[in-house]
Structure formats: structure tokens, C-alpha cells
Design brief:
Length: 275
């Protein structure tokens, strides 16, 4: 029996290692490609660069790429903070506070999730145009500062949060807001961190809304900038430039994931408040 379990574990480890290598290969290929010359990429003779080159990175940084990164960082951070505040508080209200029409409101929110975003693009553009926010970063912030999917996620988290903890806080004299900010929220770090990563990734990788609302090159988001760089070489695709920009654009996401990764482990630990 022990031999069978050991054999099964070995098979599982082999499959997991193989899947990991398969997943990491495109990322490794992108990094190595960013250090190749255009001629070497077109030739495709080897995976490793025969002649290491920084031409791609030099081309990227000689453009408005730093400006586009700054735009994406500022807008991404603002949108992430607003989402954390509004989505988390809305999820808590739907989970814990009884008010007239709560179930109807929650049902409408679920219906809105089912509507494809492409359907609302034109009406959204008209609203933003009437508000005078076209070609401003405010258009992206205004249309992305709330996400129904994460309201639903936070609601499910708070439903499973122990009520005894909140009742004890109420007995100690805390108000509803005091209980939320001092007791509930500190024990929701895992869920909040998970939401933060996915919200930031969503706006960082967003392409359609910036393309719809932003037209000035100095206000481009990173995705627009990368697209603009690639269009400069219509006759011959500069893969070294494209890969260099793509690799640099991944760095902020990796940093955020590394910083918040420790909270993912406890994201489903609902008993932390009892300790």
C-alpha cells in the first residue's frame, strides 16, 4: 500500500512539474526574445540569444513608454483603492444589513453581471461624453471604480464570517461602522488582497476602454502605448521591442502579487476573528 501511494505521488509530481514547465516556457521565451536582435528572432535558430542585445529596451525607453507606465500606475492604484472601498462595503451591506428591497437589488446586480460589456460600450461612451470626461483618465476611473463581481465575492465572504465576533464587538459598544472597520475588515485581509490583485490586473491589462475614451498619446495607458509602438513597424514586426515592452509591463503585477501573496493562503480562513 505504501509503495502504491509513493508511486502515485511520484506520478503526480511529474505531471505537476511538466505542467509548470509548459506554463513557464512562453514566459521564458518572451524574456529571452527581448534580448535578441530582430535578425536573430526572424531567423529563429535557437532559444538562447546568440548575441545579447538591449536594442529593444532602448527603443522602448526612448519613446513615451515611461509616461504610459506612470499613467497606468496612477489610474490603476486609484481604481483599485476605490474598488476596495466600495465593493467591500457594498458586499458587507448585502451580507449583514437588512433593508427593504435588498434581495431585489442583489438579484438585479446578478443580472447585470450577465450582460456583456460590449453591449454597454456605446451607451457608456455617450454618458462619458455628456459628462465632459472624454480623453481624460477620469473616464476610466468613473466607469471602473465599482465591480459587481467583487461585490458578490465580498458578500459571500462576509456571509461566512462568524456572527459571534460581530455580536461580541457590539456588546463592547462598537457601532456598525466601528465593527466593520475595527473587527471585520482586519480579518478580511485575504479576500481584500485577492480583490486588489485582480482589480489592478484588470485595469492594467484593459485595452477596450482606454481605446474608446483616450485619444491623446501623452494620456495613453500602457496597453495603448504598446499597441502604438507595434504599429510603428507595419512592414516588419519588431518583436524585440514588443517583447521588451511586454516584459517591463509584467513587473508591477509580479511585485503586487509577491507583496500580497501571503494573504492568499489565509483567504478562506473564516475563524481568524475567534482567536
Amino acid at each position: 500500500m505504501k509503495k502504491e501511494n509513493k508511486t502515485l505521488k511520484i506520478i503526480i509530481y511529474i505531471l505537476l512539474i511538466g505542467y509548470s514547465l509548459l506554463t513557464l516556457f512562453p514566459f521564458a521565451w518572451s524574456i529571452l526574445t527581448s534580448f535578441k536582435t530582430t535578425a536573430e528572432i526572424v531567423g529563429g535558430n535557437s532559444i538562447l540569444p546568440e548575441q545579447w542585445s538591449l536594442d529593444g529596451y532602448q527603443t522602448v525607453f526612448s519613446s513615451q513608454f515611461p509616461t504610459w507606465i506612470g499613467n497606468s500606475l496612477i489610474v490603476g492604484i486609484i481604481i483599485t483603492v476605490l474598488n476596495l472601498v466600495f465593493n467591500t462595503m457594498a458586499g458587507y451591506a448585502l451580507a449583514r444589513i437588512d433593508f427593504r428591497g435588498k434581495n431585489v437589488l442583489f438579484g438585479l446586480l446578478l443580472l447585470l453581471i450577465m450582460i456583456p460589456s460590449q453591449v454597454t460600450m456605446i451607451p457608456l461612451y455617450i454618458v462619458i461624453s455628456n459628462l465632459g470626461l472624454i480623453d481624460t483618465h477620469g473616464s476610466l476611473i468613473f466607469t471602473t471604480m465599482i465591480n459587481i463581481s467583487y461585490i458578490f465575492m465580498m458578500r459571500q465572504f462576509f456571509i461566512n464570517f462568524p456572527k459571534d465576533v460581530e455580536e461580541a464587538a457590539t456588546i463592547d459598544g462598537l457601532s456598525r461602522l466601528g465593527t466593520f472597520f475595527k473587527v471585520v475588515l482586519p480579518n478580511a485581509k485575504g479576500a481584500v488582497a485577492t480583490q486588489a490583485v485582480f482589480v489592478f490586473m484588470g485595469i492594467w491589462n484593459e485595452f477596450m476602454k482606454p481605446l474608446l475614451f483616450i485619444s491623446s498619446p501623452d494620456k495613453y495607458m500602457l496597453t495603448q502605448g504598446l499597441n502604438a509602438i507595434s504599429k510603428q513597424y507595419m512592414n516588419a514586426t519588431k518583436w524585440d521591442v514588443i517583447m521588451s515592452g511586454a516584459i517591463i509591463s509584467i513587473i508591477p503585477i509580479l511585485i503586487i502579487y509577491i507583496l500580497l501573496n501571503k494573504y492568499f493562503i489565509t483567504s478562506n480562513d473564516q475563524t481568524a476573528g475567534i482567536k
